[in-house]
Amino acid sequence: MIVIGIIGMVTVLTAIQFKSIKPEYGIMISVVGCILIFVYSLSRISDIISIIDKLSELTSISRDYIKILLKITGITFISEISSDISRDCGYHAIANQIQIFGKLSVLAVSLPIFVELISSVGNLLS
Q1: 60-114 residue pLDDT tens
Q2: In the structure, what pLDDT confidence band is assigned to residue 120 with cuts at 50, 70 and 90?
Q3: Helices and strands in the chain: count of H runs, count of E runs
């Protein structure tokens, strides 16, 4: 966490300095900082996946559902980061479209779980 904090603060302070010279440099530095933080965050995913694998072995949860959950999480993070970067650059309409696309993508990816849930409820009621 300290590394992420340092990267964030250095990025912000550097972007502020360059923003006064040329605004586009500040935006570029901000985007690079976001990418660095995101890539560093990806190193934590292996820990999360190993814990989820252990949980799936202890329970009867299908690995397919876990894959869908991880996809949903990835879509959420990527759309949120992309939307925030677009908003910081002043492109609010594009940021909103990215968020809408992310929500629709989550809905599309989660449909198999929703279908299984409805099927299970239908079997319980009949």
Answers
A1: 777 788 888 889 988 998 999 899 988 988 899 999 999 999 999 999 999 988 8
A2: confident
A3: 5, 0
Whether residue 118 contacts residue 107, with contact meaning beta carbons closer than 8 Å, is answered with no
How far apart are alpha carbons 62 and 83 in whole angstroms? 32
CA–CA gap between residue 62 and residue 60 (Å, rounded): 6
Q: Residue 109 has which token pair?
A: 């990816």
Q: What is the dihedral of CA 28, 16, 39, 44, to 10 degrees?
A: -160
Cα separation, 77 vs 18, whole angstroms: 27
